[in-house]
Design a protein that fits this description.
The protein is mainly α. It has one domain (about 1-110). Helix content is about 75%, strand content about 0%. The protein contains 6 helices and no strands. The protein has helices at about 1-25, 35-45, 50-60, 65-90, 90-95, 100-110. Helix 1 packs antiparallel against helix 3, helix 2 (about 35-45) packs antiparallel against helix 4 and helix 3 (about 50-60) packs antiparallel against helix 4.
Length: about 120
Amino acid sequence: MKFEQERATLFGENLIHFAQYVRNSENINNLSDHHKLFRLKNIIEEYRIQLLGEEIVRLNQFNWQKEQSELLIFRACKALENIAEYVENNLDDLFIYSARIHILKHFYESFHFTN
């Protein structure tokens, strides 16, 4: 269980960092179209990616809570699927985010749910 707990915590931390990376990416203005970047920020805020990540980290900080963690990770994955679809449809302007999304997808696929 310790391994699952650490993996869930790491997934949550990566969600937080992804949301912060997108929010603070105004410094790389020349790489992304402003309108598409604004829409990506809105999508991340709509799905509350950072809040999901913080909640996953909080739940698993001291002990493994399987049911709640799986529910939050599943919700985060559904949000990431929509974000990944948007980035893939606008890959010419948002290519810089595709690597982070790929990492998050890889984390999610490593979880084995009993649903």
